[in-house]
Structure formats: structure tokens, C-alpha cells
Amino acid sequence: MEETIKSLLDDSFESAMALTNSGVPQVPDRYVLPPSQRPALGASIGAKETTLPVIDLSLLHQPLLRSSVIHEINMACKEFGFFQVINHGIPPSVVKDALDAATQFFDLPVEEKMLLVSANVHKPVRYGTSLNHSTDRVHYWRDFIKHYSHPLSKWIDMWPSNPPCYKDKVGKYAEATHVLHKQLIEAISESLGLEKDYLHEQTEEGSQVMAVNCYPACPEPDITLGMPPHSDFGSLTILLQSSQGLQIMDSNEKWVSVPYVEGALIVQLGDQVEVMSNGIYKSVIHRVTVSKDYKRLSFASLHSLPLHKKISPAPELIDVNNAPAYEEFSFNDFLDYISSNDCVQQRFIDTLKKNNS
Ligand code: OGA
Ligand code: NI
């Protein structure tokens, strides 16, 4: 065991945090993106800003207003596969405590974090850097800890025991996000004209993976990224960001920076909702830019229907004019795909599209 950790430390593993702390004036070559994939920061200055939707979720609980909020959600999902929510019911103190615990975790000495390092995507708790340090051809300026989070009691003992507050604080945030995700899945089902509890059983049994991401200040933010363009595989992702950095691709295939909205959480549709809605909604393609001046933290709560459950287009949305456009797939199929393919080259969901249009 010690041998493995030592060889990882010696050979291949170097976190973005360690690079920043060592004061490198430039990013190492492995982080340099081909020119066409660079973020072109600042290129949009002066361009007309796209306004991204911000939805007041408290209005969902007001019977007279619910249907207009559902309509807003429908518009946002159709246009972007993305929206921000305010008044979502998660107390600011829960959010702040989770961010504090994450800050403390990434500030731990390298040796402590290396206890959890793994390149195996099937591991329920995994510390890492980039996407997968052992296979990435280009590296991304990100460190992360990912852990299964639902049901909490099943997984929490395996979570980091340092800092000592981590399990409690991140656990509270994970539980609160799980409750919020159920409300969102109901609203999204309703917005498709399905029963509110269409996915009820699946969301009860579904999984929640919390990806806690750290993007340290980067000496050359113009030629690297924190995460490459991708869509999330699950049903939906609830994202908490400590500052601006996320960009989403709009329907004209232009990158739009997601503004930091105090107290808001970001909702992104994943591939499972795209398949379930038979493409009426699309999963949102997004990427992360990094900053020269500050470190950014994020919590991506990745919600997914059960591991083995095959997801297919909802029969209610299929008729003579709307043939099923996707093959069915499960979370397990996705994990197998990312273990053996380069998902920066081809998105998993593109392998599911049928040629019947
Ligand atoms: C992710 C992700 C975005 C961010 O973890 O899948 O897209 O801002 N994160 O960290
Ligand atoms: Ni993502």
C-alpha cells in the first residue's frame, strides 16, 4: 500500500494545488490545449450578453403560481438545458459550512489527500486531479474529491475523516441537495407534461455522487481549462460555485459565462433527462475556465437514476410523429464507456442516438 502511494507521488500524480503552491510561472506542457480548444477569455467583451434564466423556486409552493414557474422551467430546459434557482430552501449556513469543509480538505498536506487517490472510476470515494490523471492526454487544472452520497448512511463512513468536520458539514449539504433534487425532478417531469411523480421510484433508488472540485489560481488561464466541454451523464446536476468560472454552450454553439448569483444554485440537465424526454430537452454542454487571481470551489451534486436501471424515452412522449430517438442505457453502461473511451473526443450520449430522424 505504502509502496503504491509512494510510486504515485514519485511518478505521475501532481495536483493542480501543488503546482499553484509551488509558484510555477507557467503551466506544465501537459496542460496546454491545442489553440482551437482554448477558452479565448475576454473575447466576448462588448458582445451582446445572453441573459440566462434565474428562477425563484419558492413560487413552486404557491398553488396559484406553480404553473407559471413550471412554464419558466420548460422554457429554460428547452432553450439551455440549464437554469439557476434562488429561494431553493437550502440555508446559507449549510452552503457556507460545506464550502469551508472543502477549503480545509484541499488545504491538507499532499500525503493526507493521497490516501484517497484512485484512477478507478468505480471507486465510491476518490481523490484525483484533472479528469483521470493516469489516462488524460491533456490535463485540466482541477483537483477533486468525489464520493457517493445517497443513501448517506451507506457511504459517509468512507468519506474523508480529515478535516474532522467534513462528514458532518458536507453530509448536511448532500442531504439538503437530495431533497431539492426531488422537487426539481417533479417540476421537470411536470414541465414535459408527465405526471409529477413519473420518476418517483427511480429517484428514491437513484444515486447521488458529490463531486467537490477545486480550481486553484492558474498562471496561464488563457491556454488551459478546469474541465473540458462535456455533458453530465445523470438526470440532473445541482451545482454550487464559489465564484464565476462555469460556461455553457448556447443553441448557437457559443460559450456563455454563467454569472455568479449570490445564494443561487445552478441546475443542469444531464443525458438521462435528454433520453427520457426523447430529446425535447437536451443535456447542457459545459466547461470550466480558471482564473489567474483566485481559487474557485464547486460542488457538483450529480443525481442519477439507479445504477442498473435502463433509461429509455418516456412512452408518453412517443407517437407516430415522434419515434424513439435514443437507445436505452444505464449508469453502469456509462461507467464502462468512460473507463475505456476518451469522452473528450465523443460524448457518451452521441453513441445512443438512433439514425431515424
Ligand atoms: C462537473 C462540472 C462544473 C464546475 O463536475 O461535472 O461540470 O463548475 N463541474 O465545477
Ligand atoms: Ni459537469
3D architecture notes:
- The structure is a single chain.
- The protein has an 8-stranded mixed β-sheet. Strands 6-11-8-9 form a 4-stranded antiparallel β-sheet, with no helix packed on it.
- 28% of the residues lie in helices and 17% in strands.
- Helix 3 (66-79) packs across helix 7 (166-191) and helix 4 (92-106) crosses helix 7.
- Strand 8 (246-249) and strand 9 form a beta hairpin.
- With 357 residues, it is α+β, with helices and mostly antiparallel strands.
- Bound molecules: N-oxalylglycine (OGA) and nickel (II) ion.
- N-oxalylglycine is lined by residues 211, 213, 227, 232, 239, 241, 245-246, 286, 288, 298, 300.
- N-oxalylglycine binds at residues 211, 213, 227, 232, 239, 241, 245-246, 286, 288, 298, 300.
- It comes from Eruca vesicaria subsp. sativa.
- It is found in: Cytoplasm; Nucleus.
Strand content: 15-25%
> Architecture, CATH level 2?
Sandwich
Distinct bound molecules? N-oxalylglycine, nickel (II) ion
Query: Uncertain spans, ≥5 residues at pLDDT below 50?
Result: 5-10
Class from secondary-structure proportions? alpha+beta
Query: Would you identify the CATH H-level superfamily?
Result: B-lactam Antibiotic, Isopenicillin N Synthase, Chain
| Element order: H for helix, E for strand | HHEHEHHEEHHHEEEEEEHEEH
Radius of gyration: 20 Å
| CATH topology label | Jelly Rolls
Which bin fits the share of residues in helices?
25-40%
Count of beta strands = 12
Please summarize the sheet with the most strands. 8 strands, mixed
What general outline do the C-alpha atoms trace?
A: globular
Q: What is the count of distinct domains?
A: 1
Oligomer class = single chain
Distance between the termini: 53 Å
Subcellular location: Cytoplasm; Nucleus
Family: Belongs to the iron/ascorbate-dependent oxidoreductase family.
Organism: Eruca vesicaria subsp. sativa
Function: Involved in the regulation of shoot development and salicylic acid (SA) homeostasis.
